[in-house]
Amino acid sequence: MTLFPEIERLSPHFTADPAHEKLGVLFHHSVKPFEETIAYMRHPASEVSYHALIAPDGTRCTLVRDEHIAWHAGASVFRGRTRCNDFLLGLAFAGDTYAAPLTAAQLASAHEWLAARWILRRWTPEWMTDHRQVAPGRKNDLNPFEWMRVAAMIGTLQVP
């Protein structure tokens, strides 16, 4: 049972083959509001997508299924590997973390989304990061203070 509503509005912006490695998660903020982000991710010309997006009220929208490669990271490097899209799922918070902090519902919903995958995927905190860290100088999400809040939430997950 989930505490937060989940909807599915699939984006056409993904790669099905090869299968996604699902080694961890790359966090983003969308800048745009929830519904506007969904519309943008589904628009044929955008060529960008996340696996999931979380609204300020905690509602989650699946845009790309976990087994597929969403186009969320662009040019990126994490743990010595390029092409973060191939091995990190993209989870985004609707809004701009420089303009407004993450809501308690967004953090709780992200925790719920992560917890459902944490033990199954045998994830550890070392495989969690944000866009700012994998694309320095090119991307600035999340606000470093908000990243610290997300990292603290991640620290509450049970390590397998």
UniProtKB/TrEMBL annotation:
<dbReference type="GO" id="GO:0009253">
    <property type="term" value="P:peptidoglycan catabolic process"/>
</dbReference>
<dbReference type="GO" id="GO:0071555">
    <property type="term" value="P:cell wall organization"/>
</dbReference>
<dbReference type="InterPro" id="IPR051206">
    <property type="entry name" value="NAMLAA_amidase_2"/>
</dbReference>
<dbReference type="InterPro" id="IPR002502">
    <property type="entry name" value="Amidase_domain"/>
</dbReference>
<dbReference type="GO" id="GO:0009254">
    <property type="term" value="P:peptidoglycan turnover"/>
</dbReference>
<dbReference type="GO" id="GO:0008745">
    <property type="term" value="F:N-acetylmuramoyl-L-alanine amidase activity"/>
</dbReference>
<keyword id="KW-0378">Hydrolase</keyword>
<feature type="domain" description="N-acetylmuramoyl-L-alanine amidase">
    <location>
        <begin position="11"/>
        <end position="145"/>
    </location>
</feature>
<keyword id="KW-0961">Cell wall biogenesis/degradation</keyword>
<dbReference type="Pfam" id="PF01510">
    <property type="entry name" value="Amidase_2"/>
</dbReference>
<protein>
    <recommendedName>
        <fullName>N-acetylmuramoyl-L-alanine amidase</fullName>
        <ecNumber>3.5.1.28</ecNumber>
    </recommendedName>
</protein>
<dbReference type="InterPro" id="IPR036505">
    <property type="entry name" value="Amidase/PGRP_sf"/>
</dbReference>
